[in-house]
Amino acid sequence: MSEFGKVAIFGAGLIGGSFALALKSARAVDEVVAFGRTPASLQEALELGLIDRAGINPAHEMGDADLVLIATPVAQMPGIMERIAPYLGPQTIVTDGGSTKCDVVAAARAAFGDKIAQFVPAHPIAGAENSGPSAARHDLYQGKKVVVTPLEENDDETLDRVKRAWALCGADIYELTPEYHDRVFAAVSHLPHLLSFALVHDLAVREDSEMFFTFAASGFRDFTRIAASHPEMWRDICLANRAAILQELERYTQELDELRSALLGNDGERLQQVFSLARQVRREWASDQ
Amino acid sequence: MSEFGKVAIFGAGLIGGSFALALKSARAVDEVVAFGRTPASLQEALELGLIDRAGINPAHEMGDADLVLIATPVAQMPGIMERIAPYLGPQTIVTDGGSTKCDVVAAARAAFGDKIAQFVPAHPIAGAENSGPSAARHDLYQGKKVVVTPLEENDDETLDRVKRAWALCGADIYELTPEYHDRVFAAVSHLPHLLSFALVHDLAVREDSEMFFTFAASGFRDFTRIAASHPEMWRDICLANRAAILQELERYTQELDELRSALLGNDGERLQQVFSLARQVRREWASDQ
Q1: Is the pLDDT of residue A161 over 90?
Q2: Are residues B121 and B264 in the same domain?
Q3: Does residue B237 sit in the same domain as residue B281?
Q4: What is the mean pLDDT of chain B?
Q5: Structural domains of chain A, count
Q6: Interface subset of A 77-106, CB within 8 angstroms of B
Q7: Same-domain pairing of A136 and A264
Q8: What is the 3-state secondary structure (H, E, C) of A223-247?
């Protein structure tokens, strides 16, 4: 038997399908059984060889599963957790691929109760332009970051098993608390999306919006690329991580207030200080990537 | 004699050098004489064939010039205008390449006085990663937009001459008032730069900033690309266009306040409305480019 004998995944799309493929490539799994919202996507995942079997009733598949990955949109996770909780085997470890963590942890605590030690939250940082089973790739996680946000109830062995699974996928593993995770991603991902959506929206609702878009150029293109992101997904992320996003928005508004004061006061020196530090740090970051 | 016999340019870098090269390619000019801040850059422009001659004293070159392009940073334009104003011939037409217009017009009115009808402000929308004479290209303006912001004093013939020069460079010509120009560019260019600088600065000044940059990914990369822009140039643009930028910042802050309310009120419907409209408009814009 291989390292992870039976793996169950919920959602056989980009995240779940790539996870399954990567573990198969590493010969670390005997069987992957998958659950999905539509028979069609499960059929596609089967035909693409991402999974071995489409599951019918989760209740029948949890008892002997070694590892369960919940790779659905975060909004669907509480329902799935409640459905599987009664059936987990004593050896079954559950992890997830959600991009927010405090809300997932809260849902998991509510659903798993005294089995919460069996759940290790995780967030693979590997988006892509496309989604669905056909977007899955065996090397999606190669060299990518996966943040694991352990709970105090997790014992070392359980935590190591989840880290090991992601490491087999080729990922670099980081550990953060769920709270710190959510703060960091609010700042570097969620807030920028909000700001980009806001800019385009503010232009779009003007009577003469066409004139503005006529003269938008390459800087605008870069800044607003993320405003073409999926509205429902970003609504859910914003609601899921609203506390941290509101905190970051508050900080950012203060930063804008400072720039407004510098403009009002014709304070070129202050503007240049802010721009210079930003440029330096942005360039250092880019050269490290 | 060709259409524009003698052309004088101030600043033989990307903007001025490309303008000279394009007019030469179109055989629309007999002689290009250039002025610059350093002898070295003029020498380089000469060697690259961008210009025919490095000027020594502007006073001696204006009287028989047909067209003068001021293609320096905006901050240097008032001084140049004052120096050349007394020597313009009756046929000499002056234009500029500044990215803000109300401040340039104010400087021109102060410098040119009753010769203001000879000045036609313009803004070629053709930045590039690089600058200086070696970055100049004969086709820089091909298919690019040039915004001309005529003054009420300009007669049709003068205006047509400037539009014709830019058209010979291959540009598409647009006409806006200086005020409307500055509002549009505050919204689609200057404000996004400010917002991008602000985000990176806000992260950079945190004690644990390294952790934030560790998890910054592709969305952050796009959003902050313009935060690597030139600090002095953007300081000058912000000061030159501060009234319009402050107005746009005010609008944008209101937009953020609305999103904050939606987050506070758990109003997913409102968030999705904003995101959906932004996405739709951003995608339509991108597909038109």
Answers
A1: yes
A2: no
A3: yes
A4: 96
A5: 2
A6: none
A7: no
A8: HCHHHHCCHHHHHHHHHHCHHHHHH
Under DSSP, is residue A130 helix (H, G, I), strand (E, B) or coil? coil
Give the model's pLDDT for residue A130. Answer: 72
For position B129, what pLDDT does the model report? 63
Interface test mutation site (partner A, options B185, B215, B277, max chain A beta carbons within 10 A): B215
* Residue A42 sits in the same domain as residue A159: yes
ipTM computed for the complex: 0.92
Q: What CATH number does the domain containing A91 carry?
A: 3.40.50.720
Phi first, then psi, for residue B81 (nearest 5°) are -60, -45
pLDDT score at B130: 72
In whole angstroms, what is the distance from residue B191 CA to residue B207 CA?
Answer: 27
Place of tokens 């001459």: B161
Write out pLDDT tens, residues B193-233: 999 999 999 999 999 999 999 999 999 999 999 999 999 98
* A205 and A241, same domain (yes or no): yes
Work out the average pLDDT over A213-242: 94
pTM: 0.91
Contacting residues of B for A187, CB less than 8 Å apart:
202-203, 212
Beta bridge partners of B8: B33, B68
Check CB contact of A281 with chain B, cutoff 8 Å: yes
- A194-214: string of b/e by CB count within 10 Å (b at 16+)? bbbbbbbbbbbeeeebebbbb
* Element containing residue B125 per DSSP (H, E): strand B122-125
Q: What is the span of the domain harbouring residue B87? A: 4-175
Indicate whether A129 pLDDT > 70.
Answer: no
Burial of A15 per CB tally in 10 Å (0-12, 13-18, 19+) = buried
The identity of residue A41, as a single letter, is S
Q: Give the residue from A137, A160, A175 where a domain finishes.
A: A175
- In angstroms, how far is CA A99 from the centroid of its own chain? 3
Q: Is the pLDDT of residue A173 over 70?
A: yes
Residues B120 and B249 in one domain: no
Identify the residue whose tokens are 């609008």: B251
Which DSSP symbol is given to B289?
Answer: -
Distances (CA, A) of A88 to A67, A85, B17, B260: 10, 6, 72, 40
Final residue in a domain of this structure, among A160, A175, A190: A175
Residue of A174, A223, A246 lying closest to B192 (CB–CB)? A223
Q: How far apart are CA A178 and CA A183, in angstroms?
A: 9
State yes or no: pLDDT of A131 exceeds 90. no
pLDDT digits (tens, 9 = 90+) for B105-140: 999 999 999 999 999 999 999 876 678 899 999 999
